[in-house]
Amino acid sequence: MSEIAFQNNYPDELSHCYGCGRLNPDGLQLKSYWDGDETVARFRPRASHMAIPGYVYGGLLASLIDCHSTGSASAAAGRARPDEAPFRFVTASLHVDYLRPTPIDAELEIRGVIKELKEKKVVVSATVSAGGQVCAKGEVVAVRMPENMLR
Amino acid sequence: MSEIAFQNNYPDELSHCYGCGRLNPDGLQLKSYWDGDETVARFRPRASHMAIPGYVYGGLLASLIDCHSTGSASAAAGRARPDEAPFRFVTASLHVDYLRPTPIDAELEIRGVIKELKEKKVVVSATVSAGGQVCAKGEVVAVRMPENMLR
C-alpha cells in the first residue's frame, strides 16, 4: 500500500468534504491508498450509521464508494502525469448495487479499479466488503473539477 | 401534501435509519409526504455537509434520494393495499446523476415519481432541486424488506 492517502494530497481549500476531507471534523475522513493497481480504503461505521439495527444505511455505502472513487480518479490522473499539480475530480454519476445487508459491527473494505482513464474523465468501479464478502458494488464516472467551482 | 410523513408510519424497530429514522438523533431525519401523485421532502443541509466550500457533498444527495425513494415505495405500496400493515422497503440499486453543483446554503427539495409498482419491487425516480433548479436526479429500485433482516 502507498503511504500517503490520496485525500492528504488535496490542497487545504479542497479538503473540507464531509466524506473524505481531512479538515472536516464532523465528516467521515475516508483515506484511500494504492494497493498495486487497485485502490483501497478501510472504514469502520459509527453506531449511528445504521439502516435497521445491525446493518449499515445505504447512503453511507454510496458516500464511501463516491469519495473513494473520486480519490482514486485523482490518484490515477496524478500517476499518469506525475509532473503536474494534483488533480481534483468530482462525481458526474454514481451507481450502487446493494447485494446483501452490510453489517455495522465490521470494518468495511472499499476497493477500486480504474476502468477508464482520460484527461478529464475517469471511470472507477468499486466494491464494499465486510469480512471478505462483497456487500455492495458500484461505479463512478468522475470528471475533472471545473476551476470555477472554487469560489 | 399529506399530513403524516411516510417515515413516521414505520414501526419503532424500523425507525433508526441514519437517513430517515425518527429515532436516530444523529441522523438526517428526512420526512417525505405525498403531493398529489408525486412525493416530496425538504431538507436543509448542515454546514458540515460540504463537498468543497459552498456546495453539498455527493453522498448526502445520494442519501436523500435513497431514503426518500424507499419511503415513497413504502407509501405507494400502502396506498395500493391500505388494509395491510405498513411495508418497509430497502434499496436494491441506486443511481444518481449530478447535473450541477448543489448549493449548501439553500433548502433542498426532493421529489419522487413512482415509475413501477409491484408487490415486492417499486421503482422510483427522484430529483433534488435548489431554488427551483434541478441539481441531481436519480433512480432507486426498492424491494420489500425480507422479514429475516430484522434480528
List the helices and strands and how they pair.
Two copies of one chain form a homodimer.
Chain A: E1 32-35, E2 38-43, H1 58-80, E3 89-98, E4 108-117, E5 121-130, E6 133-144
Antiparallel strand pairs in A: 1-2, 2-4, 3-6, 4-5, 5-6
Salient structural properties:
homodimer; alpha+beta; 6-stranded antiparallel beta sheet; 1 helix; 151 residues; globular
Q: What would you report as the Rg of chain A, rounded to the nearest angstrom?
A: 15 Å
Spatially, the strands of the biggest sheet of chain A line up as: 1-2-4-5-6-3
Can you count the helices of chain A? 1
Strand content of chain A: 25-35%
**Quaternary arrangement of the chains shown?**
homodimer
Q: Span from first to last CA of chain A? A: 34 Å
Shape of chain A: globular
Pair with the biggest interface: A-B, 43 and 43 residues
Order of helices and strands of chain A: EEHEEEE
Report the biggest beta sheet of chain A as strand number plus sense, adding barrel if it closes.
6 strands, antiparallel
Record field, number of beta strands of chain A: 6
Mean pLDDT of chain A: 95
Uncertain runs of chain A with pLDDT below 50, 5 residues or more? none
Helical proportion of chain A, percent range: 10-25%
The computed structural class of chain A is alpha+beta
